[in-house]
């Protein structure tokens, strides 16, 4: 696979060390779920992930993020066999993509 084939610019797909790893994304999403940012324009992502983690588990969120960013699962079907609503896969996937973009943008500085 070449870098241009990657759906998301995550290190595990692009093999580019300048891109954030899926573990970096997962860590930041879960850290923010534990302690949502206040007065931040993206605080709604943190609050949504806090609710999802409370309802399912950190392991389930971790699995969905990995499936979306690395394994190319659509957001809705990334929840398969996790006893999770498809809608929550969309919430997790959207948050993961925003977090990945944020981390990659930090590397561009």
Automatic annotation (TrEMBL):
Pfam family, one: DUF8158
Top-rank lineage group of the source organism: Archaea
Positions of the DUF8158 domain: 1-109
UniProt protein name: DUF8158 domain-containing protein
Species: Halobellus clavatus
Lineage: Archaea, Methanobacteriati, Methanobacteriota, Stenosarchaea group, Halobacteria
């Amino acid at each position: 696979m070449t870098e241009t084939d990657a759906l998301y610019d995550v290190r595990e797909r692009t093999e580019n060390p300048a891109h954030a790893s899926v573990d970096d994304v997962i860590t930041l999403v879960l850290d923010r779920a534990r302690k949502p940012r206040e007065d931040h324009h993206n605080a709604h992502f943190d609050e949504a992930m806090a609710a999802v983690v409370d309802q399912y588990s950190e392991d389930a969120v971790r699995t969905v993020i990995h499936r979306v960013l690395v394994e190319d699962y659509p957001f809705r079907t990334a929840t398969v066999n996790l006893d999770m609503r498809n809608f929550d896969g969309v919430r997790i996937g959207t948050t993961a993509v925003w977090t990945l973009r944020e981390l990659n943008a930090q590397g561009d500085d």
